[in-house]
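Exercise 4. Each item below gives a protein and its sequence. For each, produce the structure-token representation.

Item: Winged helix DNA-binding domain-containing protein (Streptomyces glaucescens).
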Amino acid sequence: MGGGTVRRHIGAAERRTRLGLRHRLAAGAGAARPEDVAEALVALHGTDPATVYLAVGARLAEPQKTVAETERALYEDRSLVRMHGMRHTVFVFPAELTAVVHASTGIAVAARARASLLQDMAKAGAPDASWLAEVEASTLAALARRGEATAAELAADEPRLREQFVYAAGKSYEGVHTVSGRLLRVLGVEGKVVRGRPLGSWTSSQFRWALAPDHPELDVAGAQAGLLRRWLAVCGPATEADLKWWTGWRVTEVRRALGAIGAREVALDEGTGYVVEGDEEPVPESAGPWAALLPALDPTAMGWQQRDWYLAPELRPALFDRSGNVGPTVWWDGRVVGGWAQRPDGDVVWRILDGAGVGREAEAAIEAEARRLREWVGTTRVTPRFRTPLERELAG
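Answer:
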């Protein structure tokens, strides 16, 4: 992987230039379609449904088309697919990447998820694996007949989905789980079902379910190499720690994939970094400084484990929740400089955090982005699923 003893140093400024250009944020880099945004980012974080649309809208050249075009891609053309991926998290992927994601990360996660469900049911004295297999087959058949359905609609066809069992009996976190909730989640990580159109607006988290599109079964190691190559091409350079964190793989898997794609070592301020072959040379300068308002859990803000090159440590307490989820962020020329929120009356407000050090040009550009966001969001009210200190304060 080294390709020689002399490694080119890629500093923070160049990394921020790469980020702006490749993540479709720099001036003139806006995308034409949601598919172009997903392609540029590899995956759109989908735990909070609104994040998908807000992340797309921040990068479209014509953001007023965000909702209609994203719904077309997700629910009509199916060119984007919402499914479980890295770190057992829901993402929206380009459709052609679903087989790669399933083989590279989903298979291992799915095995753990199914084992956990069976173990929890056994501890609760619930029916065994053969019973669950019958319910699963019946559920998938019902979904095939309906095309799309909610969990409640599926339970009307397969009443055993309503069965409940006690989880973690006697523990402080004891709870009651419904078979439908746990089983549909397992089927999701196994690549058998995907989330379909929501019941409400684009901010709704109440989804219908649909059968997953057919995809070929790929070799795990080959799929991991393919996924890592794709991500490194848009997010490189990155450290081994970044790669391990983003993928959720073991370090041995990360190193195997780096070797398989012939990744090149470069020197970063944090230590050794990696880029894809041919990406070692300096990148062209961007068209000038740029501003962006990115949503909570945006894939750019959450893209790396080591973030000092774009996010000063002293700003983090205001922008993250206790679980490490980032809230809405304000960016200026490749750095996070503050946060934003939407108030109940629909106004989009923002604040530059102390120590960020921006001037009037930045503030004018950020306000222009806030106006752009207000215009396309319109009457919709967006509250992040994971609230952060600054977002709560600004939202009032």
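Check: The chain has a mean pLDDT of 93.
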